[in-house]
Structure formats: structure tokens, C-alpha cells
TrEMBL record:
Residues 6-459 form the Bicarbonate transporter-like transmembrane domain. It holds the Pfam family HCO3_cotransp. GO terms for molecular function: sodium:bicarbonate symporter activity; solute:inorganic anion antiporter activity. It is found in: Membrane. Coiled coil: none annotated. GO terms for biological process: monoatomic anion transport; regulation of intracellular pH. The chain crosses the membrane at residues 12-32, 145-163, 183-201, 231-249, 269-285, 331-350, 356-376, 424-443. The keyword Transmembrane applies. Residues 463-487 are annotated as: Disordered. GO terms for cellular component: apical plasma membrane; basolateral plasma membrane. This is Bicarbonate transporter-like transmembrane domain-containing protein. It comes from Champsocephalus esox (pike icefish). Keywords: Membrane, Transmembrane, Transmembrane helix.
């Protein structure tokens, strides 16, 4: 990975320049009505991008859990009968210099270094070597932390999923069930923090600063776009800013298209230009202050919409609730960001949250956001006999082999996006996201417009199916009337 310090460049100043260029280009897109190109973003593009984001959430959560196994290793060759003789002590390194051996004594005003009494942290600082049957390559084995972290991780995921579906259960009044379902993630985090405190295993906690100040003493609240960098970096920053603009534009528009789907039954109009304008302004502010960029979060946006869905009350036992729409208001969005801002004053409470619990929440958000993505419904058709396939509307009018071909193209695009994102060629990732739109246009030469209207139309599956059923019922009634009249 390239290190900017090797080239004498300041990262924060260069990042500020790129951010300001990106904000300017986004404002230019707003002024030139570029958001009108959203009409070219169909289900093919949005599902490939949304699936990628969801998979990233899932993969990163699992990767973080595996990384805990490296921080807290376990002995895979334990013998229960030898537990009383397992030890791990710190010993002086074989090639230790005289200065290293006397460093500890100078610091602690003692004559000799007692290596066997050093803590794990101190032993690593002074280059000690861990010796003993209970020692791993990086230090003593600590199996309790890893196993407890795994329990916290999966319990958080399953408990969040259970509480989210609690509104469909038969216990407690409807209002209580709905409240539990709406605050499923918050209740889960609270329960897991209390459980972690009661058990007492030293699980890794969330690291937050103690004071409200910049994390580095070498920087202030505002970052200069030039800093110690040469003047030409202000102009050169426009090149990576162009790639950032493409990615942010596609991310913003695809997220907006997903949120404004017809199946969500939104009544208020879309604000594609306004959304991009807000993102552009916040990009500039965050860049100058050295903060993470403010962009559309696909998974969080989908989760927010899902949490605001309205359903009808069940009048009869066993009756499934009917989706009525989404609570369209500005209160939740405002309160979310207000609480995010207030979180800087709640560091004492945030320090109590175990990291495996947060990883479990990320896994839940990634998995829950996969629901409703047609791509994964079509992937399951590969391993499903025809007689067991659901009555999907596109299967009525599109041959199965063409459905599989469309799925293969979309799945290939998803795999290519993931490969580029995880490789050294990640710099061209924004271009590949944009290329999804052009790949979709090429499908017009492989599929008929009628087939694409069923496979790639943004009209909700359930609505198309109802309209088709009504059409068939009408044709059936007309045929019956003609037969009765002898026509």
C-alpha cells in the first residue's frame, strides 16, 4: 500500500483537497440536472450495488470476529489432565542488548529486571520472549475472551432478528409488540452489555477518546487544503476527486432509488437534487474539519425505511398483517443525527459496549437488508425443481433459462465488483459501478423488452402479480359469458 509520507505529502491536507474538489463537482452535477440520469438506474443496477454493500457488511463483521482469534489465541492441543502444569512466563530475549536490559530498571528505579513478573504489555514493549506450554506465538493463550466474543456476536445477531419479528408473535398487546420490534437493536445492545457486565469476561470494548478534541495533537480543528504539500497537489487532487464523485453520485442515487421504490408506497415526492446538494455541502464541511465524509449509507437507509413501515392490525386469528406504507416524517432522521452528535458526550457509556456486540449488529443489518432483493430469489431457483418454485410473476412470462441467464449476468457483475474492491485495482471501482448502467443497456440486445419488463421493472412484484391475476380473472369471466351466449 502506498504511504504518502514516503513522498513527503501530508495525508490530511491532500484528503481535504480531494474532498473540496469532490464537493465542487457534486454541486456542478446538481446545477446541470445530472440527477435526471437516475432514470437509467434500474433494478439490475441497484440490486447489484445494494447486494455488494450488504455483503461488505456481512464480510467485515465476520472478518472482525476472526481477527479477535488472532488477538486472543487459543491452544488447540490442550490436554485436560495437564491443566495444572500449563504456564506462560516472560523471558529475556537471547540477543538483548545491555541498553534494553537496563531500560526497565532505569524506568522503575530497581536494580534488576524481573522478567517473570512482567505483564504481557511490558514484556512486548521490552522485546521479551514468551515461554511455556500456555504460550502462543503472540502471547499467552486466552480462550475465554474469544469464546465469549463468539457468544456475544451470534447472540446479538439472533436476538436482534427475534425481537424485530416480535410484532408477529401472539404474546402481549399489539402496542407492546410493536414497541419491542421498533427498538429491537437498542434493546439487544442493552441486554448484551448487561450480560457482559454480569459474566465479567474481559471482552474487547469500544475504544473512544476521553476528551472532546482532535485525536491527534499535531492537528487542529480545521485542516488546510495545502498544508505542507506542494502547490500542484491542489490541482492534482481533481483526478481522484473525479473518481470519488462518480462513486458518491452512484451511491446517493442508487440509495435514493431503493428508498423511493413504488413498493414502499411513499406519498411525498423525491428530492434527488436536494439530497445531492446536502451531500455536497457536508462533504466540504467534513473535509475541512478532517471528519469522515457524509455520504448516503445504503444499508442504514434501507434499515431506516424498514423500521418505519406501517402494517394493518389483524382482525382474525392467524391473519397476516397487510403493509400500508411508510411513516413519512422528519423527526426520526433529525433525532438520529442529534443523538449521533450527542454521543461525543457519552463516551463513559459507550466504553461499556463490547466490540463483538457491534459486529453482531453489523451482521444483522447486512442480512436483514438482503430481504426483498430479487437477485437472491432468482439465485435460489438454480437449485430448486420446477414443481417447488414459487409462483413468481416473471416465471409466468419469461422462460426459465432466460431467467437464469439474466441472473448469471447480474451475479457476474457482483463478483467482479467484489474482486475489484478487494484487490489493488480498487481505484477503478467507481468506474465499474458506473459501468453497471451500460451493461444493463447491452442486455437490450439479448432480451426482449417484454422479458426485461418482467425481470428488471421497478414495479413491485406483488403489485404486478395482483394486476396479472385480475387480468386473467377478467379474461376468464369474458370467456365464460361468451360460452353461455353460444358465441
Amino acid at each position: 500500500m502506498m504511504n504518502l509520507n514516503d513522498y513527503g505529502l501530508c495525508y490530511l491536507s491532500l484528503r481535504t483537497s480531494i474532498g473540496l474538489w469532490t464537493a465542487f463537482l457534486c454541486l456542478l452535477l446538481v446545477a446541470t440536472d445530472a440527477s435526471s440520469m437516475v432514470r437509467y438506474i434500474t433494478r439490475f443496477t441497484e440490486e447489484a450495488f445494494a447486494s455488494l454493500i450488504c455483503i461488505i457488511f456481512i464480510y467485515e463483521a465476520l472478518q472482525k470476529l476472526v481477527h479477535l482469534g488472532e488477538q486472543f489465541p487459543i491452544n488447540m492441543h490442550n490436554q485436560l489432565d495437564n491443566l495444572t502444569v500449563y504456564t506462560c512466563r516472560c523471558s529475556p530475549p537471547a540477543n538483548a542488548s545491555t541498553d534494553t536490559l537496563h531500560q526497565w530498571s532505569n524506568t522503575n528505579a530497581t536494580s534488576d529486571i524481573r522478567w517473570d513478573e512482567l505483564t504481557v504489555k511490558a514484556c512486548k514493549e521490552f522485546g521479551g520472549v514468551f515461554e511455556g506450554s500456555a504460550c502462543g506465538p503472540l502471547g499467552p493463550y486466552v480462550p475465554d475472551v474469544l469464546f465469549w466474543s463468539v457468544i456475544l456476536f451470534f447472540t446479538t445477531f439472533f436476538l436482534s432478528s427475534f425481537l424485530k419479528q416480535f410484532k408477529t408473535k401472539q404474546y402481549f398487546p399489539t402496542k407492546v409488540r410493536s414497541t419491542i420490534s421498533d427498538f429491537a437493536v437498542f434493546l439487544t445492545i442493552t441486554i448484551m452489555v448487561l450480560l457482559d457486565h454480569l459474566v465479567g469476561v474481559p471482552s474487547p470494548k469500544l475504544h473512544v477518546p476521553d476528551r472532546f478534541q482532535p485525536t491527534s495533537s499535531s492537528r487542529g480543528w480545521l485542516i488546510s487544503p495545502l498544508g505542507t504539500n506542494p502547490w500542484w497537489t491542489l490541482l492534482a487532487a481533481a483526478v481522484p476527486a473525479l473518481l470519488c464523485t462518480i462513486l458518491i453520485f452512484m451511491d446517493q442515487q442508487i440509495t435514493a432509488v431503493i428508498v423511493n421504490r413504488k413498493e414502499n408506497k411513499l406519498k411525498k415526492g423525491c428530492g434527488y437534487h436536494l439530497d445531492l446538494l446536502v451531500v455536497a455541502v457536508m462533504l466540504g464541511v467534513c473535509s475541512v474539519m478532517g471528519l469522515p465524509w457524509f455520504v448516503a449509507a445504503t444499508v442504514l437507509s434501507i434499515s431506516h425505511v424498514n423500521s418505519l413501515k406501517l402494517e394493518s392490525g389483524c382482525a382474525a386469528p392467524g391473519e397476516q398483517p397487510r403493509f400500508l406504507g411508510v411513516r413519512e416524517q422528519r423527526v426520526t432522521g433529525f433525532v438520529i443525527f442529534l443523538l449521533m452528535g450527542c454521543s461525543v458526550f457519552m463516551t463513559s457509556a459507550l466504553k461499556l459496549i463490547p466490540m463483538p456486540v457491534l459486529y453482531g449488529v453489523f451482521l444483522y443489518m447486512g442480512v436483514s437488508s438482503l430481504k426483498g432483493i430479487q437477485l437472491f430469489d432468482r439465485i435460489k431457483l438454480f437449485c430448486m425443481p420446477a414443481k417447488h418454485q414459487s409462483d413468481l410473476i416473471y416465471l409466468r412470462y419469461v422462460p426459465l433459462w432466460k431467467v437464469h441467464a439474466f441472473t448469471c449476468v447480474q451475479l457476474t457483475c457482483l463478483i467482479v465488483l467484489w474482486t475489484i474492491k478487494a484487490s489493488a485495482a480498487a481505484v477503478v471501482f467507481p468506474m465499474m459501478v458506473l459501468a453497471l448502467v451500460f451493461i444493463r443497456k447491452l442486455l437490450d440486445f439479448c432480451f426482449t423488452k417484454r422479458e426485461l419488463s418482467w425481470l428488471d421493472d421497478l414495479i413491485p412484484e406483488s403489485k404486478k402479480k395482483k394486476e396479472d391475476d385480475k387480468k386473467k380473472e377478467g379474461e376468464g369471466g369474458e370467456t365464460y359469458n361468451r360460452s353461455a351466449l353460444g358465441v
